[in-house]
Amino acid sequence: MGSVVQVRNLTLGEGLPKICIPLTDTDLHSLLRSAQTLQKGPCDLVEWRADFYADFTTTETCLEALQALRQVLGEIPLLFTIRTSEEGGQAAISTEEYESLNHFVIENGLADLVDVELSKGDEVMTRLCTAAHHSGTVKIVASKHDFAKTPPEAEIVESLCKMQDLGADIAKYAVMPNSEPDVLTLLSATIIMKKNHSNTPVITMSMGKLGAISRVCGSLSGSAVTFGTAGHASAPGQLPADILKTFLEHL
Fold first, then answer.
1. Of these residues, 18, 139, 144, 172, which one is catalytic?
2. Model confidence over 158-180: pLDDT tens digits?
3. Disulfide check for 61: which of 14, 44, 55, 214 has CB 3.0–4.6 Å away?
4. Conformational region of residue 46, where left means phi above 0, alpha means psi within -120 to 50, and beta covers everything else
5. Which of 120, 139, 145, 194 is catalytic?
6. Domain ranges of the chain
7. 245 is an active site residue
């Protein structure tokens, strides 16, 4: 790939795809217990799926969890994600609430990366990217999810390029395959991004059992990160992190 993104001691966009493990716990005790277990297995970065967490929309609650996670994780990079119900997540909040909370997380600097959904609009994406760039440390992962289908190749490429144009540091697209050719469509779009639009790393995945191959072939397609489990999965088709590591090292 062309451009890379440095997050603490981790370089995204070169070498093997990095393994990200999502945490979906609902309370602080369980969240920290899950974070502590990550030290025992393959884990390059951690995603806190805050939309699963109780009272995550309260800034005090969110800050408490981020501070505790930062202490446990040390130098392991942390991705903060509020996945809204429109994109397959648990958060049923307004766009205003969504932007405000993400802006709060960017400002406090405890997360290294913040996920921003493309569906929230160009202006929201631009403002949050600007805030992150002004922070000097936080990176934006722009994202889009389709849990019903796999869009045409050109549409996937167009969306990923739009994320780049709006200022995202990393562009991510997850789709649901309904046939074997759908998986190839996603992989082909990813290769096009690697060859023709490599000014940022990209993350892509074809979800569900049918698309599992897309989670282990990032070295071929150009996807910089793959999501694995060390507990509960946050999306269909995620593989255990230790299995992911074996595939990534041998393919």
1. 172
2. 999 999 999 999 999 999 999 99
3. 55
4. beta
5. 145
6. 5-243
7. no
